[in-house]
Structures are given as C-alpha cells and as structure tokens.
Amino acid sequence: MGTRRLPSYKSADRSAGLDPEADCVEIYRALSTYDFPWDLNQSLSLALFRTYAVPSIGSLLDATGQFTSACQKRYDDTALLLEAPVVHGFDSPEGRTGIRRVNQMHAMYDISNEDLRYVLATFVVVPKRWLDDHGWRPLTGGEVTASVHYYRGLGRRMAIKDVPETYEGFADLMDAYEREHFAYDEGARRVADATLELLVSFYPRVAAPGVRLFSRALMDDPLLAAFAYAAPSPVVRRVSAGALRARARVLRLAPPRRGPRHQIDTPRIRSYSGSPDLAAMGTFAPGCPVGPGLARETAGTASAV
C-alpha cells in the first residue's frame, strides 16, 4: 500500500472519502503520525504494559532478561518494528521486514495463540479507550473500523488465529482474558518495574516521584492489583485526569500538525538515529549470527510464528 500524503488539517475529515477497510493503513497512519502521535504512543505503551499482568506473558518476558538488562533497547526495537508497517504499508520492504523480525522473535519461544490474540486485542481497545477519556477528540466510527482492520491485517501476517472481526469482539476478548488471567507474578512485577523506571527516565530526575505516581493513577484497579502496586488516592486520580483533560483542551485550539511525527523523531528513542536497519533489530536465537541478511532471508512472516 502506498504512502499518499494526506491533508494536514487537524480534523476527523482527514479520512473523508477513504474506505475503512481498503484504506485502513492510510487512515491508521494519519492517526499515528498526524492526529495522535503522543496519545497513541502512550496508549500502546500502556497496552503492552497491561499484557505483563498475564503471568504467562510477564514471566516469559522476565525469563528473557531483556527487559531488566536492556529495557531501553527493547522499547526502541518494539516501537520501530511495529511502526514500520504503519508508515510504509504491510507489503513494503520495511513493513515486511518489521513484521518478519517480530515473528522471528516470537518463534524463539512457546507463545500460545491465545496470548498473542490477547496482545493484539489490547492494541485495538486500549488506544480507543484512552482517546475517549484523554484525547482532544474521540475516534470516529470509520477510524475505529480502520483500526480493527489494520490489526486484523497485522494478525493475519503473524498467523494469529480466530481474530475478532469487530471492535466489540476485540473489547469483549480483552476484558474476558484479563478477568480470567490477571494475577501477581514476581517475574512480571520485575518487568513492570523496569518498564516504569524507563518511563521515569524520559523526564527530569526531579519529576521522578510525580511521574511514578501519575503513571499509577492511570492504571485501573485490576492492573494495580496484578502488580501489587499501591492504589493512588482519589485526589491524585482526579488531578491526573484533570491534567490530561487540560492538555486535550489546549490541543483542540492548537494549529494543525503540518508534517508527520515518527518514532525516530522523538527523544524517547535513544538506541538509534537516522534510518536504522530494521532487519538487525531485536533479539536473535543463541548461536544465530546477527545481521540484515539473516533477517531478510529467513522464512516468511506468516510461517515464522
């Protein structure tokens, strides 16, 4: 799919005339790089954070040692690999390479289809709920549908089975999975702690206590309980929500973004600059030579799960 430049006015009309299914990549690209670059980055980070509270996911991530020893690079790799198909399209060389690397890393471990499907559901549901609560506008119905089709397309390329067909299906799946599986796990708690400390490092040191408190204020009670985190007071929750509402009001009055904002443009990406080699990102199986040729030549994306 091409990268036709969309109008740069800040409005839901940006996707007017586009088909939510056929043009889902283009619509989702506009949301990610023009309308909501910060919000989608925050909400997708929160989506991944939620998955740690499922012990089969959180304990596996802890066992790899990557999130406690190289959390910044894992953050950067995940952000850039998942952004590649958004920016360039599923069938572009960059999009195919990004998805292939994700699949190759998943293939190193015994990950159930149910866990993969749950993670995919968080990518659809958490950003919509975030924008409903904190965004300068909610998603339109067409944008929600485009998001569903985008992640269904990603799911197909990751060989994930029984993917929901609607937003409601994704939401029901996510909520039910969390009710059944959220539980405390020491390894998952270590991964959550390391991720929170990485988030804290993005801000001035003097702000660290406030960032930690603000972050917990954005977590719901089941998520806090799964990590055995202390629940913030109602006052802290109100202040945190109020700060995000104030930001949304300011953004409604701000001029439109004139150009796209990509992950590599943000100061949070610290491991790479310029145009990094997607094929060399991530982790590789023990004894496997690391290099762009390897990642391009190994088995296709659908069969690598």
Kindly describe this structure:
The chain is mainly alpha-helical and 305 residues long. The chain has a domain at 17-206. 61% of the residues lie in helices and 0% in strands. The chain contains 14 helices and no strands. It has helices at residues 24-35, 37-51, 55-64, 66-69, 71-88, 93-107, 113-134, 141-157, 167-181, 186-201, 208-217, 221-227, 234-253, 292-297. Helix 2 packs across helix 7 (113-134), helix 7 packs antiparallel against helix 8 (141-157) and helix 7 (113-134) crosses helix 9.
Label this structure with key terms.
mainly alpha; 14 helices; disordered N terminus; disordered C terminus; 305 residues
What's a quick, concise take on this entry?
The chain has helices spanning 24-35, 37-51, 55-64, 66-69, 71-88, 93-107, 113-134, 141-157, 167-181, 186-201, 208-217, 221-227, 234-253, 292-297.
How does the SSE layout of this entry go?
Layout: H1 24-35, H2 37-51, H3 55-64, H4 66-69, H5 71-88, H6 93-107, H7 113-134, H8 141-157, H9 167-181, H10 186-201, H11 208-217, H12 221-227, H13 234-253, H14 292-297
Helix pairs in contact: 1-2, 1-8, 2-7, 3-10, 5-6, 7-8, 7-9, 10-11
